[in-house]
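Researcher: Good morning. I'm working through a list of sequences from a screen, and I'd like to move beyond sequence-only analysis. For each chain I'm collecting a predicted structure so we can compare shapes side by side. This is the next one on the list. No need for commentary yet; just the structure.
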Amino acid sequence: MGIEATIKRGHRPEYVIIAIVALLVVFGLAMLASASSELGKIRFNDSYYYLKQQLLKGVLPGLLGFFLAFFTPYKAYKRFALPLLLMSLALLALVFTSFGYVAGGAGRWLSLGPLTFQPAEFLKVTYIIYLAAWLSNPRKSREKNLIEGFIPFLVVSGIVAGTLVFQPATSTVVILITSGMAVYFLSGAKWRYILVTIGVGLLALGILVLSTGYRRDRISSFWESERNLNDKGYHLREALITLGSGGLWGLGYGESLAKVRRLPASINDSIFAVIGSELGFVGAGALVALFGYLSIRILWIAKDFRERFGKFILVGFGSIIGLQAFFNMAAISGIIPLTGVPLPFISYGGTALTVFLVMSGIVANISKYT
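Model: Good morning. Structure tokens for this chain:
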């Protein structure tokens, strides 16, 4: 049965999407257990330390968020779209106060009492919801109006991008703003507005890369990895070696040796390399196909969805999931420079997993109205 034949199901949710998300989460836990066992034993004398942390800080709140989102009618978010966006921006601003702290070379974390999280992740939900609510206003044709549409879109997107850049979270900016552009374009925006947005975005990205040392280092390590084997290109080189070491069928689950001894960020950004090493080209390729199918299926539902608010949310969330998965796997495969973004549902990190599960819950709720 094809995708189109399964879309019109009355008021039942899109079970295939729920099943794929569940499969990705379970698979992610299994791969995290493998990738982190030796690291946990070395650092905390507990082979399951990172797995326990992921269950406690990612899966548990993520499932709670998924079910809350699944049982909340998606139209309820529309009236709170602006407050939710402002709240996310306020949390990002708190990173620069005494509540924020640096981890992994970037001030992306916020500590509020017992809670420690990455506030940048929440913008993936609130920015798309706000944009969808703003563009779906039936009394205005904002997508085609310069003063009431295009300029405010640039201003809001610029504020979001600027706040993220100072985290710094450049790759998140690219993913989020590109997804926002997809929503804006599919709302019926004029082509010249899209071209101007792309031009402004590329110019701003170029200035960012050239003006900051660590961003230049990532680009140079990508282009000159063979000449920087022991310096800037080390991470990429080890990722490629680890990824390719599995051959067609892989070394076997738990058998990768590079994940602790050589590969940086083996449980975070580089976990796709561990997957390729242990499960081979077949396993890594199946994961790529699964992410591609999930993203396309969400966008396919959006294609025939009549209500504009839900349609735009589906486009935004489907784009974010697909783009972030691509950015991570393409970077580890040496196709693009290293990005520093986690692999959705797979990488270690409670905030990211929680946000993607909430996103999936909203998508599942919207799918009930197709």
